[in-house]
């Protein structure tokens, strides 16, 4: 075989596989383009999520975790698309990824539910650090809101840690979110008391108490005729910061006023009869 025959054979081989080579090169270029585009989208989505969560004052740990999770999720989908463009059968790969995700999800079911609940709490903010709340019949001040749990400091200085999934599913009473709060007192007096005099004494006690809001009229009313007492409601408004001091001062003024005016405050009694007959 001479040199001319070698050249002709080479040309025939190139012509035979020219379409295949060009097709492979085109698929390879598209695969690179898909990867570059997918990575750019992943970075953009992660950056936007980080910005949105940061603007909502979400915990930095949650911000980093959510943004990283979105980034790698998009990268995985991009790699599957790249492999498909290169001719790799991706059905089995997707099935494996789905099965692995299901297994991890089942294994971490409790932790994932706590994490999801923590994200909900941080985004919607039913309470903040430093606010006084009741959660699951547990009253205290919010100490921290973590990814998986919420910590409360009780009035006796005990630290209570509640899983976030239980927090989301519970009734939450937030005492300090609103700036003003109503103080409700029940005052029991004896049936021999003059009702008009009781009203007068209670009104004077309210007027003597400091830090009661004047833009909302106090309410004093006879609410119930109990078995051994007449029950009066005293309803006044104050700020959250002054709630405790106002309650203590008002109770003291009411007690002093009732005592000074000879108004009886009934208390439980028991009559004991002794049978001395043998």
UniProtKB/TrEMBL annotation:
GO MF term list: mechanosensitive monoatomic ion channel activity
UniProt domain Mechanosensitive ion channel transmembrane helices 2/3: residue ranges: 69-109
One Gene Ontology cellular component annotation held by this UniProt entry: plasma membrane
All copies of domain Mechanosensitive ion channel MscS C-terminal, residue ranges: 184-265
Domain Mechanosensitive ion channel MscS: 111-177
TM helices/strands, residue ranges: 20-42, 62-87, 93-124
Keyword Cytoplasm in record: no
Keywords linked to the UniProt accession: Cell inner membrane, Cell membrane, Ion channel, Ion transport, Membrane, Transmembrane, Transmembrane helix, Transport
Membrane disposition: Multi-pass membrane protein
One Pfam family per UniProt: MS_channel_2nd
Domain of life: Bacteria
InterPro entries, alphabetized: LSM_dom_sf, MS_channel_1st, MS_channel_C, MSC_TM_helix, MscS_archaea/bacteria_type, MscS_beta-dom_sf, MscS_channel_2nd, MscS_channel_C_sf
Compartments it resides in: Cell inner membrane; Cell membrane
Quaternary context: Homoheptamer.
Family per similarity comment: Belongs to the MscS (TC 1.A.23) family.
Function according to Swiss-Prot or TrEMBL: Mechanosensitive channel that participates in the regulation of osmotic pressure changes within the cell, opening in response to stretch forces in the membrane lipid bilayer, without the need for other proteins. Contributes to normal resistance to hypoosmotic shock. Forms an ion channel of 1.0 nanosiemens conductance with a slight preference for anions.
Entry protein name: Small-conductance mechanosensitive channel
